Amino acid sequence: MTVQDDIIHQEILQAAIRLYRRFGPTKVTMDNVATATGRSRSSLYYYFKDRDEIFQAVLERIAEDVAAEIRLKVNAAANLHDKIYAFCLAKINTTEEWKRVFKTMDQLMSADEKSKHSKVQDALHNKLMYLERGILIEVLSAAGLQNNAEQDMLAFIISSSIRGVRREVHEYSDPHDAKAAARLLSEMVAKWVQS
To answer: For residues 109 and 132, what is the distance between their CA atoms, to the nearest angstrom?
Structure first.
């Protein structure tokens, strides 16, 4: 793909995201995306075979963008504790932002449409888990934890824990402070790794 093709590809995805937010993914057609990008419908087929492939590409892009934002925050932190804490806060903030987008899209879909797209959203979740795991393993490895099984298990525990904290606090209005929970989790991980 040329640089120009990559730019057009990204423009198509951005237009699709805007349309999904407004109408929901099942209501958006190739014609809608073509109009939003100022291109012909036939030109879109050079980049995507159908609207489902555009939706899949949008979800891939979201996962990559979320992971990139988390990585940026983690890389800016100075030590293991701060890196884990930065991961946790970024995870809470980015997933909350995208969760609102998906909730809006879900409200615009019928039950059958939700069922069809839930499999794609499950794939997004799995991709994001994979990318997050990679970030955490890099952090743990740089901190001196070299056992691959321990790295994998600890990455799973951190990611799952902060996801649970976010869900309880934001979705179920638990009175605990998510930042305080993230700080305690970060302290526990740092102490365990450095012991």
So the answer is: 29
Q: Do the beta carbons of residue 13 and residue 25 sit within 8 Å? A: no
Q: Cα separation of 103 and 78, whole Å?
A: 35
In a domain? residue 132:
yes
What is the signed CA dihedral for 175, 181, 182, 183, rounded to 10 degrees? 130
Rounded Cα gap, residues 127 and 133, in angstroms: 10
pTM (two decimals): 0.84
Q: 3-state DSSP call for residue 28? A: coil
How large is the angle between the packed helices 148-166 and 80-107, nearest 10 degrees? 50
In a domain, 155, yes or no: yes
41 is a domain residue: no
Q: Is the pLDDT at 184 greater than 80, yes or no?
A: yes
User: Does residue 38 belong to any structural domain of this protein?
Assistant: no
Tokens of 29: 């057609």
Which of 154, 145, 156 lies closest to 193, judged by CA? 145
46-88: pLDDT as tens digits: 999 998 899 889 888 888 988 999 999 999 999 999 999 999 9
Q: Which residues contact 96 (CB under 8 A, 6 or more apart)?
A: 166, 170
Percentages helix, strand, coil for the chain, rounded to the nearest 5?
85, 0, 15
Expressed as residue numbers, the domain containing 72 is: 51-194
Task: Give the DSSP letter of residue 167.
Answer: I
